[in-house]
Every structure is written in structure tokens, then in C-alpha cells.
């Protein structure tokens, strides 16, 4: 019997509501397929935890999380309680960076039954590969002077090793899909870092002659996500560009509430972390209408990257069958409650 030890962090807002729904689904998956079981331990790290203890997690929090196979996160942040930069750097980015989760994977796929925000979306199936550990999300820099003379300086960090790693993964994924990698750049405006990025992309592309490659400036590529998403396959971007594009991808899927993501540690020293793209949505807390699909699709990615690809694909097919038959929460134009959507997914896992 294979056991996956999972640290669950519901976090803030709707994270506390959708996490139990996804765990119900994973437990049903284990029951249906056999040979697999989950052991979950919940951690209360959140903005509420910060208000009580002055930190997003205790001093030994990372050591405790490091003992698990994966971290399963709900949603982090509530600006009405804690400034976003504190919750982000104190929990989410802390885990990503200290656990060396250098790659972020976010799919953007139009599920059956869901109406995209686009007028003519066709079928699109995109994967955004985001360098997750450096780039524009750096704490290097500072602020000097006061009043109208104040200056803020922010330094970006791009290493050849991390950049090559993200691009190699993008080409590997494309080799199993439609065979196209698109690089997000801005070398016409960012003088040092983006030409460096482009040079490495060209180098990696030259080693994959059977895979098509192209570079698009970030502003044009963001527009392309809206106008021609069906022509994209695998998109690779820096930390900031990948973050922006994957949110655009979530929007054209119909709702950010269904978008999943994976933060991957590739050296095996620390656990990877899996989280939906959406935020804590405090405005709908307690209404029972939070969309559980983002967290459940994220559970699919957790299964996949823990060696259970077949089970993961079965779960995604069930999710899509449920949306195809109209079992959706109000953010997708549906009439069903959060628990009703989960119940339908669980029911169909038996079939």
C-alpha cells in the first residue's frame, strides 16, 4: 500500500471551505483505485495565525512541513487583517523559496460545459511554465530618502541555471503535447535581463530541432492569450511574466476559481506544494458558493507529480464530465453549491 503524507494548509477565507472538499475527493480516489492511501495533517498557518502569534507560521514551521511528501495549500491572504506583502512573504513565498520550488506549472484548459469569457474561444489547452524562485520576485533592493525625494530600487535576479531549468522543462512538456514552446520576453525594453533570457531560450531551442519555438513580447503575448489561445501549447516565462500570463489563462477558462497550480521541487530534498490560483475571496466566505474545482484540479496535479498519472487523468475526466453536465457554482453561471459540485464528482468517481 502506497502512502502519501500530505501537509494541508487551508489558509484564509474560502481556503478553509474548499480544502475539506478536495480532501474528500482524494480520499474517494484512494478508495476507488486501491493501493493508495493518504495521511493528512492540517496546519493552521494563516492571517488569523499571524494576528495571534505575530508570524504566519512558527519558527519550526518549515522543519515540520519538510517531513511530508507534499504541501497542499488552500488560499493565503486577507488584506483587511494583514498586509498582503506580509502574508505572501511570510508563508507562500517562504515555502516556495526555502523548499527550492523552482518551477511553477499552471494549466489553462477550456473544460467542457464552461463558457469562456472569450467570444470565440475554440478549444485551448495551454501549460504555463514559470520560473518560480528568482527573476522579478526578489527582495534585493531598498528605499532611500524621504518625501518627494524618496527612491525605491528593485533588483531582478536571473541565473543561467534556473532559466535553463525552466526552459528544459517547457521543451520536455511540449515533446509530449503539440510540440510548440513560446517564450515570454521583453528584450526591447528590459536592457540586461531579457536579452539574457532570449539567448538562453535560443540555446535550449537549438537542442530540440523537432519542437517549434517562438518568442513573443509579454504585452503582445498577453493579447495573444485573448485572441488566439488555441494556437498556444507550452508557454515559458519568468517569475513575473509567468504569474501574469497564468492569471490571464485562468480568466479565459471561465473563472479563476477553477485554475490549479503546482510549485515543484526537482531535487527531491523538499516537498512540492500544490495550490489553486485563486485568492481567499473573503466576500463569499460562509455562503457555500466557493468553487471547489480549483482545489480539486490541484489535487489532480498532486497525484500526477507523486507518480499517479493514470489516477490523476481519471480525476480530470470526471471533473470535466461534471462541468459538461452543468454541475457548476455561480461564478461559472451555475446554480449549485460548493458541496453539491463535490458530491457529484465523488459520485462519478465510482463509475
From TrEMBL:
Pfam families: Iso_dh. One of its GO terms (molecular function) is lyase activity. It catalyses: (R)-malate + NAD(+) = pyruvate + CO2 + NADH. Keywords: Lyase, Manganese, Metal-binding, NAD, Oxidoreductase. Its EC number is 1.1.1.83. Its cofactor is Mn(2+); Mg(2+). SUPFAM superfamilies: Isocitrate/Isopropylmalate dehydrogenase-like (SSF53659). Residues 5-345 form the Isopropylmalate dehydrogenase-like domain. Belongs to the isocitrate and isopropylmalate dehydrogenases family. This is D-malate dehydrogenase (decarboxylating). The lineage of its organism: Bacteria, Bacillati, Bacillota, Bacilli, Bacillales.
Amino acid at each position: 500500500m502506497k502512502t502519501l503524507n500530505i501537509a494541508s494548509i487551508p489558509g484564509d477565507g474560502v481556503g478553509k471551505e474548499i480544502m475539506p472538499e478536495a480532501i474528500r475527493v482524494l480520499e474517494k480516489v484512494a478508495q476507488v483505485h486501491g493501493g493508495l492511501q493518504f495521511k493528512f495533517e492540517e496546519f493552521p498557518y494563516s492571517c488569523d495565525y499571524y494576528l495571534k502569534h505575530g508570524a504566519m507560521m512558527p519558527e519550526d514551521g518549515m522543519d515540520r512541513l519538510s517531513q511530508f511528501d507534499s504541501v497542499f495549500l488552500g488560499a493565503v491572504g486577507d488584506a483587511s487583517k494583514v498586509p498582503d506583502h506580509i502574508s505572501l512573504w511570510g508563508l507562500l513565498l517562504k515555502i516556495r523559496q526555502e523548499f527550492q520550488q523552482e518551477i511553477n506549472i499552471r494549466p489553462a484548459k477550456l473544460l467542457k460545459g464552461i463558457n469562456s469569457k472569450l467570444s470565440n474561444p475554440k478549444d485551448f489547452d495551454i501549460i504555463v511554465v514559470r520560473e518560480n524562485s528568482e527573476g522579478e520576485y526578489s527582495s534585493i533592493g531598498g528605499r532611500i530618502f524621504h518625501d518627494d525625494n524618496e527612491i525605491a530600487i528593485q533588483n531582478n535576479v536571473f541565473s543561467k541555471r534556473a532559466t535553463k531549468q525552466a526552459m528544459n522543462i517547457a521543451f520536455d512538456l511540449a515533446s509530449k503535447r503539440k510540440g510548440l514552446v513560446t517564450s515570454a520576453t521583453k528584450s526591447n525594453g528590459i536592457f540586461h535581463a531579457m536579452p539574457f533570457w532570449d539567448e538562453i531560450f535560443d540555446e535550449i531551442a537549438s537542442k530540440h530541432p523537432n519542437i517549434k519555438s517562438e518568442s513573443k513580447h509579454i504585452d503582445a503575448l498577453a493579447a495573444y492569450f485573448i485572441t488566439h489561445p488555441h494556437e498556444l501549447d507550452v508557454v515559458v516565462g519568468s517569475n513575473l511574466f509567468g504569474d501574469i500570463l497564468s492569471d490571464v489563462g485562468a480568466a479565459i477558462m471561465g473563472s479563476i476559481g477553477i485554475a490549479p497550480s503546482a510549485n515543484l521541487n526537482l531535487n527531491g530534498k523538499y516537498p512540492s506544494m500544490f495550490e489553486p490560483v485563486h485568492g481567499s475571496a473573503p466576500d463569499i466566505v460562509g455562503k457555500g458558493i466557493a468553487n471547489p474545482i480549483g482545489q480539486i484540479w490541484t489535487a489532480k496535479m498532486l497525484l500526477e507529480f507523486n507518480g499517479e498519472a493514470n489516477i490523476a487523468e481519471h480525476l480530470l475526466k470526471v471533473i470535466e464530465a461534471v462541468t459538461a453536465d452543468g454541475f457548476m457554482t455561480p461564478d461559472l453561471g451555475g446554480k449549485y453549491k460548493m458541496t453539491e459540485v463535490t458530491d457529484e464528482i465523488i459520485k462519478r468517481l465510482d463509475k
